[in-house]
């Protein structure tokens, strides 16, 4: 197997120059860098990554921690974070917490022990234990998607209040005045922000969103079905409903179809995330698209900028990106006459 000395001999430079060219620790001329890279390729030289990390005090590894692996939202985070890290010459260690705060704590502790260059993570919920860990380490950390109130921990998030506002404005513009909402878990701050944006805009526009028209879901398909069934069965009055993610919105559409309630003819439905199914199904789902790629790129850039610095790595960095409303087929003007639930009750009698 070729050694560093073999590469240096072929490139006609010293071993220290080869090391600088490979590690990027001290700049070398463009001509020298190209000669070294050609010699590395020609000889099939593979650097010892462990030794390299000890020399340059960098593992070239980032950790990404997400609440679950199967949800399309977090699949997008994984894909785009890996893409952004790879473009900067970093590899990614990925872990799922299964929405368990104890598992989240163990995995982040394990990442810290591996001396990685930075951690990007989406918190389990407000029950997360990670604050006490973050206060003990100088490893750069960025919170993505589910932010903290603390300003000394960098975060990259979508403007969730704005997402609720966009949906409400769209539905109000169609003429809806009676609304319902199936939220995500309300122990996650982004869901409270989404609900606040939706409610504030509905009320400011002369609409109603009664407490009995709000159902707390869990982001799963089944909770969308249970949520809309509960609202209909308890006599909630609404002509438009916002589910705070697309999986729940698809569950709503499924139950409404089972009950013979037309969408958007009788009830308009909107979601959030813009997953593939939202545009593949019929009717296609009006939804809010999250800027996943931009969020992940910003998070990786912040981590790499802060990695290896001698200060305490605590800065007031909060990147808030705008959501985008995508209008499709599940929203339209409200029906004339009574609410869908009332009409179905009349038909059953």
UniProtKB/TrEMBL annotation:
This is Putative HTH-type transcriptional regulator DegA. SUPFAM superfamilies: lambda repressor-like DNA-binding domains, Periplasmic binding protein-like I. Keywords: DNA-binding, Repressor, Transcription, Transcription regulation. Pfam families: LacI, Peripla_BP_3. PROSITE patterns: HTH_LACI_1 (PS00356), HTH_LACI_2 (PS50932). The keyword Lyase does not apply. Residues 2-56 form the HTH lacI-type domain. CDD domains: HTH_LacI, PBP1_LacI_sugar_binding-like. It comes from the Bacteria. GO terms for molecular function: DNA-binding transcription factor activity; transcription cis-regulatory region binding. Gene3D superfamilies: 3.40.50.2300, lambda repressor-like DNA-binding domains.
């Amino acid at each position: 197997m070729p050694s560093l000395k073999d590469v240096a001999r072929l490139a006609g430079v010293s071993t220290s120059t080869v090391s600088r060219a490979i590690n990027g620790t001290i700049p070398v001329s463009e001509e020298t860098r190209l000669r070294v890279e050609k010699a590395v390729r020609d000889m099939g030289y593979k650097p010892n990554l462990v030794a390299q990390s000890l020399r340059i005090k960098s593992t070239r590894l980032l950790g990404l921690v997400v609440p679950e692996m199967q949800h399309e939202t977090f699949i997008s985070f994984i894909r785009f974070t890996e893409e952004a890290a790879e473009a900067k010459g970093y590899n990614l260690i990925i872990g799922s917490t299964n929405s368990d705060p104890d598992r989240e704590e163990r995995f982040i502790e394990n990442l810290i022990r591996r001396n990685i260059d930075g951690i990007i993570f989406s918190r389990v919920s407000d029950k997360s234990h990670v604050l006490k860990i973050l206060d003990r380490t100088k490893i750069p950390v960025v919170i993505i998607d589910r932010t903290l109130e603390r300003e000394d921990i960098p975060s990259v998030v979508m403007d969730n209040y704005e997402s609720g506002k966009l949906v409400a404005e769209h539905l109000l513009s169609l003429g809806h005045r009676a609304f319902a909402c199936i939220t995500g878990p309300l122990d996650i701050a982004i869901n409270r922000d989404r609900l606040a944006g939706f409610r504030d805009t509905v009320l400011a526009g002369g609409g109603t969103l009664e407490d009995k028209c709000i159902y707390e879901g869990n982001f799963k398909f089944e909770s969308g079905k249970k949520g809309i069934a509960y609202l209909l069965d308890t006599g909630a009055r609404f002509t438009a409903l916002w589910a705070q993610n697309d999986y729940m919105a698809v569950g709503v559409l499924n139950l409404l179809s089972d009950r013979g309630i037309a969408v958007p003819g009788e009830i308009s439905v909107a979601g959030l995330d813009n997953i593939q199914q939202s545009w593949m199904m019929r009717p296609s789902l009006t939804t809010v698209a999250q800027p996943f790629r931009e969020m992940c790129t910003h998070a990786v850039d912040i981590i790499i900028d802060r990695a290896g610095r001698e200060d305490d790595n605590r800065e007031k960095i909060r990147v808030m990106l705008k959501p985008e409303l995508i209008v499709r087929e599940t929203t339209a003007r409200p029906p004339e006459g009574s609410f869908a639930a009332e009409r179905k009750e009349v038909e059953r009698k």
